[in-house]
Amino acid sequence: MIYDAIIAGAGPVGLFLACELRLAKLSVLVLEQAPDSISPLKQLPFGLRGLSAPTIEAFYHRGLLDQLAPLQAPKEGSGASAPSGAHWMQQARRAGGHFAGIQFFLDNVDTSRWLHRLPSPASTSLPVDMQQIEAVLTARARALGVEIRHGVGVVGFEQSDGNVTVYAGGETFLASWLVGCDGGRSPVRKAAGIEFGGTDPEFTGYSVLVELADTDALKPGRHYTRTGMYTFQQPGTIAMVDFDGGAYHRTQPITREHVQAVLRRISGTNLTVTALQLATTWTDRAHLATDYRKGRVLLAGDAAHTHSPLGGQGLNLGLGDAMNLGWKLAATVHGHAPTDLLDTYRSERHPIAEKVLDWSRAQVALMRPTRSTRALEAIIRDLIETRDGATYFAGRVWGVNLRYDLSGNHALIGRSAPDFDLIGGTRLGELLSKGTGLLLDFNGCALLQSLAGRWTDRVTYIATDAKDRLGLSALLVRPDGVVAWASEANPDHKEVEQALGRWFGSNT
Fold first, then answer.
1. Which one of 11, 128, 172, 218 is most buried, counting C-beta atoms within 10 A?
2. What is the dihedral of CA 310, 250, 85, 262, to 10 degrees?
3. Closest of 296, 100, 309, 317 to residue 204, by C-alpha
4. Could you give the CA distance from residue 142 to residue 412 in angstroms, rounded to a whole number?
5. Partners of 209 in beta bridges
């Protein structure tokens, strides 16, 4: 059998991409090296993740949002404790996120400045755990007919003019396309010979679950010290940053004695670790693939970009790749994509990754254990506590300000489409569940309807009004929920036709 696409990696990015391709009726095989999807690192406390606005909207647009149960802070007076590792849930003020551990608070964020957003079931942030995300996506993928095989890792491939021969787990598979979603050490990327450059690590990060002889020896929360940083959540969840140039990451076993030594040095205490239950390391290495495609091989997620997990933007960045790539690859396989449509995957997503990597580097710079860095930290704390500062950081951390550089003069073009509350009770986000484009016509223009009918297999035409149309007369939305064209005046039908052809190909 020749699959339309083989995806290396059954993590959230690979699974989401598989769902997107299968939604477009492609045959999809997912190959995963791990024998199963079970891992304590995907569960709380280490599996805690914060989904950003674009990611939440992606789940919402595909009808999956209600399957994600957000982690909740305990109600006051309930006696319940916050999820392990979520020390920020125990605060009196509700934190909206952080930059290098410096929190901004929701009561300071001025959401009225984001004029392109409307009230929606898709919020700006959502705390969930990795295990839940993978479970939802795995169930969706299997329901759509995606074939998933564990214990079969891709080790190499050969390309021809029309196919890719994939070698995995001692077997050989054939596909029209291969997508590497196989992590920062991606065998697919390495086999493709794609350059992966960037900056080397400054620290080794530790996430550990321990038993302490005296839990009162450490103060809960995040703390900067003269030698590094640590975060503590009782009774024994600890994250530490040791500025050793990444020397201990994946170089030797993590022992109780080593964790105790690092923790003592960073915290400045003489505490005793009596037992080490779980431990993993990470670094701030920030690398980015020069290309996201080589022939019939593509990259997404950590295979295309890696950085420190500070701020939790890695998962969101990867899922954004999958949402952007899926419909473009499907259109290419079906043969109706414009000639350069697949190239826009790299041109749109690569600059986003560059910004996220620099955002990560900036946080590392603010964490260095030096006197000058602590002085700079004090200034950032003052700025982030202002309304302007909190709103700026929220816009970056939540992804609300994300915008692709697309052609067109309207301010909405390149942004996620507002979730218009349409007359009749339907919302725009609900109309994207099938993975097709959408031409929304608020004025019911007959010529616009006639034009849209020429792309009826790829674009859904809807003529209706909205409770708040933001002054628009019509807009064209891509399958990934991004506005491709918008107008406040009577639509220029030539403009609409060009936009349809630009993103959905020939109508003949």
1. 11
2. -100
3. 309
4. 35
5. 237, 278
Q: Are 19 and 330 in contact (CB under 8 A)?
A: no
Q: Which is nearest to 61 in space by CA: 312, 401, 327, 292? A: 327
Q: Which of 51, 59, 8 is nearest to 323 (CA)?
A: 59
Phi and psi, residue 501, nearest 5°: -65, -35
- Retrieve residue 290's tokens: 């020069």
Q: Cα angle at 32 between 30 and 38, to 5 degrees? A: 120
- Write down all domains in the chain, each with its CATH number in brackets: 2-72+121-198+287-365 (3.50.50.60), 204-283 (3.30.70.2450), 428-504 (3.40.30.120)
123 burial (CB, 10 Å; 0-12 / 13-18 / 19+) is middle
Distance (Å, whole) CA 379 – CA 375: 7
What is the C-alpha to C-alpha distance for residues 87 and 73, in angstroms, rounded to an integer? Answer: 10
| pLDDT tens column, 420-473 | 999 989 999 999 999 999 999 999 998 899 999 999 999 999 999 999 999 999
pLDDT tens figures, 116-143: 999 999 989 899 999 999 999 999 999 9
In degrees, rounded to 5, the angle at the alpha carbon of residue 304 between the alpha carbons of residues 117 and 344 is 55
Classified as helix, coil or strand, 203 is: coil
User: Tokens standing for 231?
Assistant: 């975060």
User: Of the candidates 268, 263, 281, 282, which has an alpha carbon nearest to the alpha carbon of residue 211?
Assistant: 263
